Structure formats: C-alpha cells, structure tokens
C-alpha cells in the first residue's frame, strides 16, 4: 500500500509534465476548403479558366489549414497553408496540387504581418464586388492586378472606426520586373458586408507583376439587393500599354434563389491582348451557407476574337 501510494505520487506529476507540452504548444487551427464540380461548354477556349468544348472541371477547388498560436500576452504566431486541388480531373492526375496562399507571421495590437505567398492587397481590395469570382466570369478575365504572389510581405492593420489599411511589398530580387514593388489599400466598411451594408476601397499597386494601377471599389447591400462598381486605371511597367477598366455587378436574393449580372470592360490590353468586354449572368440556388448550385453564362469579346461559356456547377465549402 505504501509502495502504491509512492508510485502514485511519482506518476501524477510525471503525467502532468507529459500533458503540459501539448497544452503550451497547442495551436488554434481550422481545416477548411472548397469542393466544386462543373460541367461547362466553351465555344473557342480563348478565355481563361475554361477549355474549348464540353468539359468536366473542378474550378479552384482547394484545401487548407489556418490558425494561430499565442506566444505571449502581446503576440501570436499566425499561419496558413493552402493548395488548389486538381485531382478531380483526369488531366491533372500526376500534379493534383498547386500553391495558393501560404504564409507565416505575427499578429498583435499593431495588426498582422505575414511573409510568403498571398493575395496582393490590390486584389484584396475587390471585397464582394465580383459576382462570378473563381469562374469563367471572374473579372480577372479582363481586369489586371488580380494577383497572388509569392515571396511577399503583407501587413494588415486592425480596424479603426470601420477603416483598415493594408500593404503588400515585394523585394527587387523576388519581383518579375527586377524592381521592388508594392500595393497599398485603404478600406472603409466591412468587406463581407456583415457589420456594415457598405464597403469602399481605394487601392494603388506599383510595379507588382509588371503593372502599375489605381482603383476605387464600392459595394452596397440594401436588404436583398446588392450593387457593386469598380473603376481602375492601369499601366504596364514598361509604359507601352495603358487604359481604363470598369466593373458593374448586381444580385438579388429571392428566398434561396440569387439571380446575378455583371459587366466588365478594359481597354488597357494588359490582361488580354486587346480591348476586352465581358458580360456574365447567372442563377444560384443556395441550399445552405455551405452548399450552392449554380448556372452561369459568360461572353467575352475582344477586337479580333470572341468566346462564350455556359456552365452548371455545384460548390461545397467546409
């Protein structure tokens, strides 16, 4: 009995020590992703994100892990590792993954600063403007600057009275045009339109991915109606191309149905080889916050070419 008590006395603190590292080293993390399948018919295959003919695709399906670990009362380490999953498709059996946002950094009262691959803060400035994000109708078909770049530093401030500042920096040796570049964005309102029914952003990108541009974005939600607009002036870094871009978007929620419409135009010939105009229309059926079925049609007109695509898809977020 004495030996048993003695052993128990020894085992209790030892077991506590064994548990302690798992407590002190534990991180608050989330595994997340998006699974999407789409049957699409595309006319000529000129537009990005769609091949000519009838195809079964998995547009921008992905999986990731993100989280933070408290270092002390002032600092937390933050991380995200995310990849695009292309294993749905027969053509991508040998290379089923491609890099998306992947970074590590610190978070505190000053805001958040991370290093790695990330959406530039110029791309970040779009908010919920794009009704056809990550589809054939994505505004990135015609609007330049929608970039995700590696080897960058990203700073995002805390909110001050509904305002937030964010910044992307790429060193000279890691930038495509062998010149240091940056993107800066000032926003007012909630990007997700949850805390405020409006969102406005002013953004500037200089020498990132061979583009220098300025843009203003506004999105407003009034009950079931959502409206958005973008104006952008773009120039290539070598100053051989320049022009203006516009996006107008609208959607309306009717119970679980969401009809939507979008117009995009750009005459800088940076994203496409010529002046480009795109019309997109679609209808979503929202089963719940995670699952959406959709039908879309998009038409892209260039000076010497044209393309259109119709798609039926199912999207599940987890």
UniProtKB/TrEMBL annotation:
Homotrimer. PANTHER family: MAJOR OUTER MEMBRANE PROTEIN P.IA, PROTEIN YDDL-RELATED. It is found in: Cell outer membrane. The keyword Signal applies. It comes from the Bacteria. One of its GO terms (molecular function) is porin activity. Keywords: Cell outer membrane, Ion transport, Membrane, Porin, Signal, Transmembrane, Transmembrane beta strand, Transport. This is Porin. It comes from Pseudoalteromonas fuliginea. It is a multi-pass membrane protein. Residues 1-26 form the signal peptide. Residues 16-301 form the Porin domain. One of its GO terms (cellular component) is pore complex. One of its GO terms (biological process) is monoatomic ion transport. Gene3D superfamilies: Porin.
């Amino acid at each position: 009995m004495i030996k048993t008590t003695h052993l128990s006395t020894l085992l209790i603190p030892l077991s506590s020590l064994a548990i302690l590292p798992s407590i002190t080293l534990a991180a608050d993390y989330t595994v997340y992703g998006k699974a999407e399948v789409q049957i699409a018919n595309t006319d000529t295959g000129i537009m990005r994100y769609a091949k000519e003919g009838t195809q079964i695709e998995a547009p921008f399906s992905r999986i990731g892990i993100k989280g933070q670990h408290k270092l002390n009362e002032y600092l937390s380490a933050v991380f995200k590792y995310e990849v695009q999953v292309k294993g749905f498709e027969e053509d991508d059996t040998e290379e089923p993954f491609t890099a998306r946002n992947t970074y590590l950094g610190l978070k505190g009262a000053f805001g958040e600063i991370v290093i790695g691959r990330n959406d530039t803060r110029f791309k970040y400035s779009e908010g919920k403007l794009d009704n056809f994000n990550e589809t054939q109708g994505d505004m990135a078909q015609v609007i330049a600057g929608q970039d995700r770049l590696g080897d960058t530093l990203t700073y995002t401030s805390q909110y001050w009275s509904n305002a937030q500042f964010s910044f992307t920096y790429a060193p000279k040796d890691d930038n495509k045009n062998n010149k240091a570049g940056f993107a800066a964005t000032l926003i007012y309102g909630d990007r997700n339109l949850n805390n405020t029914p409006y969102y406005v952003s002013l953004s500037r990108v200089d020498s990132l991915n061979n583009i220098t541009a300025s843009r203003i974005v506004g999105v407003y939600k009034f009950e079931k109606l959502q409206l958005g607009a973008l104006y952008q002036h773009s120039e290539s870094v070598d100053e051989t191309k320049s022009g203006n871009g516009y996006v107008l978007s609208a959607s309306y929620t009717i119970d679980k149905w969401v009809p939507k419409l979008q117009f995009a135009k750009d005459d800088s010939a940076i994203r496409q080889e010529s002046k480009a105009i795109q019309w997109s229309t679609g209808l979503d059926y929202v089963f719940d916050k995670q699952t959406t079925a959709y039908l879309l049609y998009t038409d892209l007109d260039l000076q010497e070419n044209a393309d259109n695509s119709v798609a039926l898809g199912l999207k599940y977020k987890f």
